[in-house]
Amino acid sequence: MKVQNNVSVYSGVTCEDDVFLGPSCVFTNIKNPRSAVSRRGKYERTIVRKGATIGANATVGCGIEIGKYAFICAGAVVTKSVPAYARMMGVPARQTGWMSRCGRKLVFDEKGEAVCDESGLKYVLKEGTVYEVEQ
Ligand SMILES: CC(C)(COP(=O)(O)OP(=O)(O)OC[C@H]1O[C@@H](n2cnc3c(N)ncnc32)[C@H](O)[C@@H]1OP(=O)(O)O)[C@@H](O)C(=O)NCCC(=O)NCCS
Predict the structure, then answer these.
(1) What is the value of pTM for the model shown?
(2) By alpha-carbon position, which residue is closest to atom 4 of ligand 1?
(3) For residue 34, is it left (φ>0), alpha (ψ between -120 and 50) or beta?
(4) Which residues neighbour 31 within 8 Å (Cβ) at sequence distance 6 or greater?
(5) What is the CA radius of gyration of the chain?
(6) What angle do CA 14, 83, 33 make, to 5 degrees?
(7) Considering only CA atoms, which of 13, 101, 87, 83 is closest in space to residue 55?
(8) Which atom of ligand 1 sits closest to the CA of residue 25?
(9) Which residues 6+ apart lie within 8 Å of 10 measured at CB?
(10) Where would I find the beta strands (DSSP E) of the chain?
(11) Ligand 1 centre from 121 Cα, in Å?
(12) Tens digits of pLDDT across the chain (135 residues)
């Protein structure tokens, strides 16, 4: 796992192996904080699955699952759970494509197949879910 400068990770956040947390990215653990209302112990859980990237200055809402190898672009605000390998951009974050394990754009053909141009690893997109093809 790599954690860059000025990252805020709070109770309730779990990051699996090989997660990349870009500089100044922020997690949250309470949706509606108020200074005068104690919500200690009521933290919402957020899980970042293996190999996902959170870009610089991104904000991750709470009660969210970031799927494995998902790619949150710099400055995005993630408000909902994110599928594995999805590339999410903007405020609020919207899906703008798919990324390989290596962090390369995956372009699926009409058969729903794509090859990572860095590793040569094959992927299939079936009913909105990306799978790696074992070779
Ligand atoms: C998304 C990203 C991977 C760049 O991808 P890219 O292939 O160069 O960008 P694209 O060519 O797909 O960009 C398509 C469009 O999205 C815009 N765009 C790119 N990154 C963006 C971002 N983070 N937020 C909003 N828009 C973005 C581009 O300006 C472009 O807009 P245009 O079509 O109007 O010109 C990169 O911007 C990013 O966020 N990487 C994370 C970097 C980071 O946080 N590193 C931390 C370690 S220092």
Answers:
(1) 0.96
(2) 73
(3) beta
(4) 44, 61, 62, 63
(5) 16
(6) 50
(7) 87
(8) 44
(9) 27, 28, 29, 43
(10) 2-3, 13-15, 20-21, 26-27, 46-48, 53-54, 59-60, 65-66, 71-72, 77-78, 86-89, 94-99, 105-106, 113-115, 122-126, 129-133
(11) 23
(12) 999 999 989 899 999 999 999 999 999 999 999 999 999 889 999 999 999 999 999 999 999 999 999 999 999 999 999 999 999 999 999 999 999 999 999 999 999 999 999 999 999 999 999 999 987
Ligand 1 centroid–CA 135 distance in Å is: 31
Q: How many helices (H) and strands (E) does the chain have?
A: 0, 16
CB 64 near ligand 1, within 6 Å: no
Q: Are 124 and 113 in contact (CB under 8 A)?
A: yes
